[in-house]
Automatic annotation (TrEMBL):
<dbReference type="GO" id="GO:0000302">
    <property type="term" value="P:response to reactive oxygen species"/>
</dbReference>
<keyword id="KW-1015">Disulfide bond</keyword>
<dbReference type="GO" id="GO:0102039">
    <property type="term" value="F:NADH-dependent peroxiredoxin activity"/>
</dbReference>
<comment type="similarity">
    <text>Belongs to the class-II pyridine nucleotide-disulfide oxidoreductase family.</text>
</comment>
<feature type="binding site">
    <location>
        <begin position="268"/>
        <end position="278"/>
    </location>
    <ligand>
        <name>FAD</name>
    </ligand>
</feature>
<feature type="binding site">
    <location>
        <begin position="3"/>
        <end position="18"/>
    </location>
    <ligand>
        <name>FAD</name>
    </ligand>
</feature>
<dbReference type="GO" id="GO:0016668">
    <property type="term" value="F:oxidoreductase activity, acting on a sulfur group of donors, NAD(P) as acceptor"/>
</dbReference>
<keyword id="KW-0560">Oxidoreductase</keyword>
<keyword id="KW-0521">NADP</keyword>
<keyword id="KW-0520">NAD</keyword>
<keyword id="KW-0285">Flavoprotein</keyword>
<comment type="function">
    <text>Serves to protect the cell against DNA damage by alkyl hydroperoxides. It can use either NADH or NADPH as electron donor for direct reduction of redox dyes or of alkyl hydroperoxides when combined with the AhpC protein.</text>
</comment>
<keyword id="KW-0676">Redox-active center</keyword>
<feature type="domain" description="FAD/NAD(P)-binding">
    <location>
        <begin position="2"/>
        <end position="294"/>
    </location>
</feature>
<dbReference type="GO" id="GO:0050660">
    <property type="term" value="F:flavin adenine dinucleotide binding"/>
</dbReference>
<feature type="binding site">
    <location>
        <begin position="146"/>
        <end position="160"/>
    </location>
    <ligand>
        <name>NAD(+)</name>
    </ligand>
</feature>
<dbReference type="GO" id="GO:0032991">
    <property type="term" value="C:protein-containing complex"/>
</dbReference>
Amino acid sequence: AFDVLTIGGGPAGAATAIYAARKGIRTGVAAERFGGQVLDTMAIENFISVQETEGPKLATALEEHVKQYDVDIMNLQRAVELVPASVPGGEHEVRFASGASLKSQTLVLATGARWREMNVPGEAEYRNKGVAYCPHCDGPLFKGKHVAVIGGGNSGVEAAIDLAGIVAHVTLFEFMDELRADAVLQKKLESLPNVDIIKGARTTEINGDGNRVNGLSYEERASGEIKQVALEGVFVQIGLVPNTEWLKDSPVELSERGEIITDARGMTSVPGVFAAGDVTTVPYKQIVIAVGSGATAALGAFDYLIRQ
Ligand code: FAD
């Protein structure tokens, strides 16, 4: 059994493991895919003190750092159920798809999130080749170019406002006939000279030349007509889905959006169960933030343990 068991091996899980192991307590990490979302990206330019790196490189560095310590790493393990301690201060259990199960006095849930995809032709093919999901991360790579933002909710409209300050031109596409973002954001968006808004539009395909994105096809829903726009980047902003499906039957309290609710020390509604990173309600999903919240959760777990 462990003192601290982290579920998830992204930046948050790696930071948790290092902070816990440095306290000299029994530490484990079980992850479906060690490295997490970082593995799906190329250029990373905002991880403070690392001017520029690539996703797979950072993922390897995270793992190497964790391996400097006495940490049990269990890769390719997908958690399917959390069974909370039956008595206060008792051990929690996590069950895995493989049939294995692990017990620990504290847990740190760091299963991250995934961007909701449009699932249209070209989207997967041109991922990181013009198709992007994170304006804070990839916006500067499109300096001076024409890009699209898909989605007229708060995140889409915020992304369009943000990008309009960096790129040459932004076209925002919304499926419905009205944007869903807050009025103040819509007003700001409409005031920008280099932004077009196309409502009632269903994206049907991301076009490219084999190497990079060069356009987008959409259906004008009112007429059923298919139209095309030439552009060099597409930011998909139709939602971020937390990986909490496996917690649905557990007592861990989730927000309306399915994110794990934590207190300032990273503790969830279940004593001894902590959470960190993109899977939580902590705003702004970024590596540096995930790493920070992983450290918080590990220290929170340690504080909890010494009080038992
Ligand atoms: P994740 O990285 O999502 O890791 C989750 C971990 O949990 C993984 O190991 C996963 O396999 C595991 N897991 C999930 N479900 C289960 C389960 N049921 N059982 C066991 N394990 C499970 N941020 C930046 O700061 N800068 C950037 O440039 C940047 N670029 C990005 C580009 C792309 C394309 C994407 C997708 C994201 C980017 N981000 C960037 C965001 C950043 O990657 C995330 O904020 C960060 O990875 C979150 O870390 P995390 O540890 O909370 O979760």
